[in-house]
Structures are given as structure tokens and as C-alpha cells.
Design goal:
Elements lengths: L9 E2 L2 E2 L16 E6 L2 E6 L7 E2 L2 E2 L19 H10 L12 H5 L4 E6 L11 E2 L6 H10 L1 H4 L2 E18 L16 E4 L8 E16 L1 H6 L2
Antiparallel strand pairs: 1-2, 3-4, 5-6, 7-9, 8-11, 9-10, 9-11
The structure holds zinc ion (ZN).
Length: about 220
């Protein structure tokens, strides 16, 4: 962990990942309305503020009181997930993942994913995960109840902005479209559906992926 890491919080003996939401971090209400904006019609908030959008896409509103209440280790806070993915912060400690290991690994970032069946991270795989620094990766695979069941790790040379995951509304009724089995709707950059989507997570694709063992990373120099 670098000295730039934000304050760390613990819960029942485990460090709580930076991107995990806390029970006091509520999704804030906002009336969704049909708006005519630059280049077409889409959704917006009735009382929209400039920070409600990023790259023209509407984002969910979620309060920021990290460390208050109880953490949800299986979920992600929308803004912290976006910050971590945009700025390549470690998803666990929140420090920059452009650290000395990044340089030592040939300018590559480490990703750790749940893999109950042991399947490796695929070339070009879409993900909502943030990178993770080496000490946090080791801590996560031993401590995190979701990773303990099976995980895979890879070094990644290139991380590409793909789009967002969120809730896509029916343009006629403004009711949510049926949810896919795995949860949120995945909407690529420049897909017309992005005008009708309330974004909740950034999605990237991982390229030049090399599966690794965490034990090898710790030993190499
Ligand atoms: Zn970390």
C-alpha cells in the first residue's frame, strides 16, 4: 500500500475494500424525465446537476459516507468504483495502482477475479473490477469470502474503456427493461441505449492478459 492510500476501514477483522458500499451510502432519489439533449432524446433527472453525468451518460446518485454503517462486501459503490477504474486505483486500499510493482511487472496491472471453476481471465474480457495492488491481492484471496471459493489472477498490459453497467429504461414507458440474469445491463460506448441508461459501474476490457500465480509475483524481482 502506498502512502497515498485513503483511510482504511475494518469490519469483523477484515479490511473493507475501498470500493465496497456501506449501509449509510444510500441510492438517492431523483425523478427521471425524458430530455432532449445534444444529438437526441434520452433520460435525465428533473433537477439534474452537471455532476450527474460523465461523458454525457447519466449516473445513479449515491451518497458518500464511507465507513458509516455496515459494509456490503459483495457490492460496489458507484462513484468509488468509477474513480478506481478511471484512475487505476487499487479496489481494496484505494491507492494508485501505478506503483513500483506496476513498473517491475513491465507496466502491467494486476487483476484478481472470482473463478469458482478456476477459469482464467480471458483476452478482451469485459469487467467492472478495478486493478489491485500485490499486497491487497494476497490479502483478498485469503480473507475475502467471495474470493476464497476460487479465484484467478492476471497481469494486464492494456485496459480499455468499454462502456457502463446500469439500468436501461424502456424509451416509451421509462420503466426498467427486464434485467439480464447476471444483474445489470451492459451498454457499450456509443450504443444508442446509453441515452436510456442510468449508469452504476464503469466497464472496461482487459487486453494482453497473462495469467499469473500470486506467489510467483511476490517472489519475482
Ligand atoms: Zn491495495
Amino acid at each position: 500500500m502506498s502512502t497515498t492510500a485513503p483511510k482504511q476501514f475494518h469490519w469483523r477483522g477484515l479490511r473493507v475494500p475501498y470500493i465496497a458500499p456501506w449501509s449509510a451510502e444510500h441510492t438517492l432519489p431523483g425523478e427521471i424525465v425524458r430530455l432532449v439533449g445534444v444529438g437526441g432524446t434520452g433520460i435525465g433527472y428533473a433537477d439534474e446537476q452537471p455532476h450527474d453525468r460523465r461523458s454525457g451518460i447519466l449516473w445513479t446518485r449515491q451518497s458518500l459516507v464511507r465507513g458509516t454503517g455496515t459494509p456490503d462486501l459483495a457490492a460496489m459503490h458507484s462513484l468509488r468504483q468509477r474513480q478506481a477504474v478511471t484512475h487505476m486505483l487499487c479496489g481494496v486500499c484505494g491507492a494508485s495502482a501505478f506503483d513500483s510493482d506496476y513498473a517491475r511487472w513491465g507496466e502491467r496491472h494486476l487483476y484478481v477475479a472470482r473463478a469458482a471453476q478456476g477459469q482464467p481471465i480471458a483476452e478482451g474480457e469485459r469487467t467492472v473490477m478495478a486493478p489491485v495492488c500485490q499486497p491487497c491481492a494476497v490479502e483478498s484471496v485469503t480473507g475475502c469470502p467471495h474470493l476464497r471459493k476460487g479465484w484467478t489472477a492476471a497481469l494486464v498490459s492494456h485496459v480499455q474503456d468499454w462502456g457502463v453497467a446500469g439500468l436501461t429504461l424502456d424509451p416509451r414507458t421509462l420503466e426498467p427493461l427486464p434485467q439480464p440474469k447476471k444483474g445489470l445491463h451492459m451498454v457499450a460506448n456509443d450504443d444508442p441505449a446509453e441515452r436510456w441508461t442510468i449508469a452504476m459501474q464503469m466497464v472496461t476490457t482487459l487486453h494482453r492478459v497473462t495469467p499469473v500465480e500470486l506467489s510467483d509475483l511476490a517472489l519475482s524481482s
